[in-house]
Amino acid sequence: MVYRIRLAYHGCTNRPFFHIVVLKHIMPRNYPPVEQIGTYDPMPNNHNEKLVAVNFERLKYWMAEGAYLTKPVAQLLGLSGFLPAHPMSYVQARRKRMEAEKKASEAESSETQNSEET
């Protein structure tokens, strides 16, 4: 049997929360899982942290049994240091960095234009 380690949505509107679960590969996202091995809260807390809790012993067991990781779970585990960083993490970081640089340059140019007008 092929298993997948994936995120199951357990939140409400504007307040997402995910369980990291083991499911058979053909089951829908919120089907009762074979096992829940962790949680992920993507909303930043007071310290601007996104919380992830994983039972690494059970994760190792399921990976040894041949369970596949979905891309979001692989990215989380790469950021946590359990696995090598997922390549998509680098792509997303570069995109965000370029977007921030673009906003900064636009703000700088608008300030320059405002100071020239006065």
Question: How would you summarize this macromolecular structure in one to three sentences?
Answer:
The protein is an alpha+beta fold and 118 residues long. The protein is built from three helices and five strands; from the N terminus they run ββββαβαα. The mean pLDDT is 88.
Strand content: 15-25%
Helix fraction bin:
40-55%
Q: Counting H and I runs of at least 4 residues, what is the number of helices?
A: 3
Distance between the termini: 71 Å
Low-confidence stretches: none
Structural class category: alpha+beta
Q: Any idea what the shape is?
A: elongated
Mean pLDDT: 88
Q: Radius of gyration from the CA trace? A: 20 Å
Largest sheet: 5 strands, mixed
Would you count the extended β strands for me?
5
